[in-house]
Amino acid sequence: MTDFDELAEGWDADPRRTERARRAADAIAGAVPLRDSMRVLEYGAGTGLLGIALAGRVGELVMLDSSAGMIDVARTRIAESGLSNTTAEVGDLTEHPWQGEPFDLVVSLMALHHVPNVCLLLRRLSEATRPGGWIAVLDLEPEGGEYHDPDFEGHHGFSRGTLRRAFAAAGYAHVTVRNALTTDREVDGIQRSFGVFLATAQRETPPRPDPC
Ligand SMILES: C[S@@+](CC[C@H](N)C(=O)[O-])C[C@H]1O[C@@H](n2cnc3c(N)ncnc32)[C@H](O)[C@@H]1O
Asked: What angle do CA 27, 77, 98 make, to 5 degrees?
């Protein structure tokens, strides 16, 4: 699997990642009614590029990521940005459920395809969300495996049917999936664009018992 601790220091050096996060934040703001009272979780936050772009539009923001290296950088970025409503923690909800206060909104950018058990993660995110609260996930549209190295063990994007079924099984209603943006990467010396969807849903019903 990708060693994100190793990538953390250099993660923000690629300006395309900051621009991608800025566009993702705008896409979320166009799809979810953001309020300055909202408590928000950014899952798989990395260095917090998305959260930093959203933090001024919500009440409180918690960044969570399984990589301690990424979270170290995220804490530096939070301090540099002077954000008093944002914190960052190391954590993996597929290992341990969320124990803190629930959230009004969960956001995530380009993290889902790295998580083996997506069904379990969505259920844990649903459990960490207030009934009626929102989730907004941006990740890869189905791709042919070119986005990562050939030995990548994660998901090669997600079809809309897979997303709809997984969100519904995790206890979300009003699922919508739309094209949101593209992300560029060099493949065999050629610049390629990969589609990124935005999936939104609201936690309406309790999760089904053990859908995974
Ligand atoms: C491709 S990076 C995206 C980082 C950031 N969202 C961005 O757009 O710049 C994927 C992130 O997901 C995190 N991640 C992977 N598996 C995870 C898991 N099971 N729980 C929490 N974070 C995870 C990685 O540590 C990494 O920071």
From this structure: 70
Domain segments of the chain: what residues?
4-203
- CATH superfamily ID and name for 4-203: Vaccinia Virus protein VP39 (3.40.50.150)
Q: Rounded distance, CA 194 to CA 118, Å?
A: 21
* Token pair listed for 125: 């995110």
DSSP secondary structure string for all residues of 102-138: -EEEEEEES-GGG-S-HHHHHHHHHHTEEEEEEEEEE
Report d(CA 203, CA 32) in Å as an integer.
Answer: 13
Choosing from 66, 94, 183 the residue with most ligand 1 atoms within 8 A of its CB, the one to mutate for a pocket test is 66
Walk along the chain (212 residues) and give the pLDDT tens digit of each residue. Answer: 789 999 999 999 999 999 999 999 999 999 999 999 999 999 999 999 999 999 999 999 999 999 999 999 999 999 999 999 999 999 999 999 999 999 999 999 999 999 999 999 999 999 999 999 999 999 999 999 999 988 999 999 999 999 999 999 999 999 999 999 999 999 989 999 999 999 999 997 766 666 66
Residues with CB under 6 A from ligand 1: 4, 17, 21, 44-46, 49-50, 65-67, 70, 92, 94, 109-111, 114-115
The letter for the amino acid at 197 is F
Closest CA to 105 of 36, 21, 161, 49: 36
